[in-house]
Amino acid sequence: MNPSLTHLLLLIIAISLRGPVAAFLLGFVNIAIGELIIHKYIFHGHWKVSKQTHIPDVTTRNPFILLHNKIMKFFNSIFHPFYVQHWLAHHKHVIIDTKYIGEHGECSEHLRLKTLQQYPKNTASLLNSSMGMDATIYGLIYQYALLVFTPLPYCGLVFWHDKPWSFLIYLLPSLLLPLSTIYHKYLHMSDVSRRKKIPWYFRWLLSDAGDQVVKKHFMHHHTNNDRNWNFIVFADTITNLFDSTNLEPDERTIGYMKKLGLEME
After folding, report:
1. In which region does residue 228 sit, left (phi positive, over 0), alpha (psi from -120 to 50) or beta (all else)?
2. How many other CB atoms sit within 10 Å of the CB of residue 212?
3. Long-range contacts formed by 90-95: CB under 8 A, 24+ apart
4. Which helix (H) or strand (E) holds 205?
5. DSSP 3-state assignment of 236?
6. CA neighbor of 105 nearest in space, from 186, 178, 173
7. Of 240, 173, 233, nearest in space to 6 by CA
8. 79 neighbors 73 (Cβ within 8 angstroms)
9. pLDDT tens for residues 65-124?
10. What is this structure's pTM?
């Protein structure tokens, strides 16, 4: 089914329910879609403007071309640092430094310093995201701000027009985005390290459902690193309607995890 039509049908169903239930469901639909857009098109560089290191000036007097160039420069200045910290840094780190990250939930100091030297123009982004593994408060704010490039804030205007408190309920599921960033590092730890270091409020990651989240995230980095873009809990139930490339963990994934010492109990 066409993604735009699917989204429209989901919006109609959610709005038809009315009230706080509709607000919450529609909020979850849109944060799932928003995370897919941010992760796939910005973090993984599926938008060319995210991937480009530099957009050169144009030599023309055509006002439309000049305006287009300025707009692309603006988007590039916002998107490219996220591409660097996630795709160029984090995705490489988890391959190069798998064992260390599996034990500590972060890359080694040597690799951290090497990455900072390699991308000096993106130092702030790398540090605010802990090399794409975690986030400072500034990193969380910057990541959350990317939602303005998704349908989430604009679909919410429907509820703001109805009742402002409904808009607040609509925004509640969007807290899953910064939350998933906070528990992200535990998805990279070995089963032994995860059980030792995980705080009580993330203990659900040790359940059978949590194991599936960990395995799917492992696939995202080691077996199909340009698939499974959405790691917000239960978001795949929505995004699978838009993108059939989300994959379920298989024997190959589990075997590779065992080889790297990241097997599940």
Report:
1. left
2. 14
3. 90/129, 90/131, 90/132, 90/133, 91/132, 91/221, 91/225, 93/131, 93/132, 93/133, 94/188, 94/221, 94/222, 95/221, 95/222
4. none
5. helix
6. 186
7. 240
8. no
9. 999 999 999 999 999 999 999 999 999 998 888 889 988 989 999 999 999 999 999 999
10. 0.85
